[in-house]
Amino acid sequence: MSDLLAQGKHLKQQIAAQPIVRQRRILDPSATSSRRTGASSPDAAKIHQDAATMTRVYEVIEFLKKSQRPCTMDEIRMHIHDFQVEGPEFQQLTNNAKVIYNSKTHTFAYKPEFDIQTSAELLEYLRQMPDQGGLEVKKLNDSYLADKLTKVVSELRESKQVLAITDKDNRARYLFYNNWPNEDNAIDQEMKTSWMRMQVPDENELAEEMKRAGLKPTQIEKGEEDKVEVKKPKRAQRKT
Questions:
Q1: 3-state SS string over 222-235?
Q2: CA-based radius of gyration for the chain
Q3: Which helix (DSSP H) or strand (DSSP E) does residue 108 occupy?
Q4: What's the predicted TM-score (pTM) here?
Q5: If both were cysteines, with which of 1, 102, 112, 165 could 174 make a disulfide (CB 3.0 to 4.6 Å apart)?
C-alpha cells in the first residue's frame, strides 16, 4: 500500500513539472479586418496619396528637363495625364528648387545646375573660370547639353578650343579653356623631337641618374627606415 502511495505521489510530481502549453485562440476574421481598416486606414491613404503626388512631380520634372523650354499646363497634361491644376503636385512644383515657375505666363521650366544650351555657351563658361581648376564633365549632365554632351565635347576638343584631362580610354573628365588654340607650331620641331627621344631611366638606375644631374632624390624621414612592425603576442584563450 505504501508503494502504491509513493508511486502516485511521484506521478503527480512529474505532471506538475511538465511545461504549460497555452491553447492558441482563433480570432474572428471580421474582427481582424475591422482593426486593420480602423484608425490606420487614413494614414495609409495619406501615404499612398503622397507617394502618387511625388511620382507625378518627378515625371513632370523629367518632362521639363527633356523639353528644354518653358511648358504650359496644357502641354504638361498632354504627357502627364494625372497632373491636376492647383492640386498638391502644382504646389510642389512651384516650390521645387529644380523648377522655374512663371506666374505671368503660367509656365514651368526646368532649372539645371548649369544653364548651358550650346557649345558656344559652354566655351564662354570655361573662358570665365580660369582659376577654378577646370570643369568636371559629368556635372554637365545636369544641363541642357546632357543629351548631346559627348558630341559637343568631342567637337571642342577636335577644334582645340578646349583642353581636357582624360581617363585611360581618352574620355574627357575635366575641361579647360584653351587660350592658345592656334599656336600649335610655337614649339620648335627640334625641341619636340628631342623631347620624344628622352626616356625615363629604369627604377634601379633612377637614383644614380638624379645624382649625376645634381638632383636630390626624395629623402626618407629619419627613423622611418628603422621602424619595424612589432606584433603583439596573442593572449592565450582560457578554456572553460
A1: CCCCCCCCCCCCCC
A2: 38
A3: strand 107-110
A4: 0.52
A5: 165
Output the DSSP codes for 43-100. HHHHHHHHHHHHHHHHHHHHHHHHHTS-EEHHHHHHH-TT--TTSHHHHHHHT-TTEE
Whether 108 contacts 64, CB under 8 Å: yes
* Residue 18 grid cell: 511538465
pLDDT digits (tens, 9 = 90+) for 215-237: 876 654 454 445 545 555 556 55
What value, to the nearest 5°, has the Cα angle with vertex 129 and ends 126 and 132?
Answer: 120
- Helices and strands counted in the chain (H then E): 9, 6
List pLDDT tens digits, range 97-122: 999 999 899 899 999 999 898 999 99
Instruction: State how far the Cα of 212 lies from the Cα of 121, in Å rounded to an integer.
Output: 51
Instruction: Return the pLDDT at 39.
Output: 46
